Structure of Formate dehydrogenase iron-sulfur subunit:
Amino acid sequence: MTTYSKLVDVTVCTGCRACMVACKNWNDLPVETQAYSGGYQSHEKPTGKTWNVLQMKEHETANGGFEWLYRHSACYHCADAACEKVCPEGAITYGEFGSVDIDQEACVGCSYCVYNCPFDIVELADYVTEDGDVRQRAQKCTLCEDRLQEGLQPSCVDTCPLDAIVFGEREEMLKLAEERLEKAKQFFPNAQIYNPPGVGGTKMFYVLADKPSVYGLPENPEVPTSAVLWKDIAQPAGKALLGVTMMGVLTGYVTNKLFNKGEHHEEGGEVDESKHG
């Protein structure tokens, strides 16, 4: 199966926020007013109501200069997603284009995915169920899977004026990232590709001008050990134990029925002696 990825080249991003606006418009996301925190940052991070945030960071250069660092931030769609591992309802799955999807009707708002996301992306937000009830459900970037199914690009990619965000087949995006990295290193000696292996690689990866921590990114994010234990050990063991338990219950039920039937026959009335030799 062909997998796809989104490449974000921060070295050519100008911080125009067109990606934010496009995401809000296409996904019909509500206005989310946040307290002013100073500077030009509109939202601190992605939330359940704002799936795509252009993060702006003031950075002092090695020679004492000053520069702005811009970074498109959204769900990374990890190949080995912690949120998928910890979901007790099976509401989080991998989509046909490589996205990590959340079934809003299956989600119960337990917040396990929120607490275990190594990038602090997933959050709960109001969701109107099929019955018309408003519930708290985990929500985040969907990689515009509905657009991809129609042969369109994700809305943030489609609107980026400088091709700082590009989308395509994963191998092509990895190759393009290497090409852009070579160009970036001419101006940014510490430039590097951010595609952390600890989460199996991400379906949204970066060409960064400096090390990840400069951009507020974890250097080596990993799937939490608790998530691995839960998904790969505890759940299979629990299902196996449940199977054994159910077999025991079923065996007991059948045995009980058989014995009770015999007792009922003996106690239920006289035995017809004519049927016995």
Remarks:
- The chain has two domains: 4-223, 227-268.
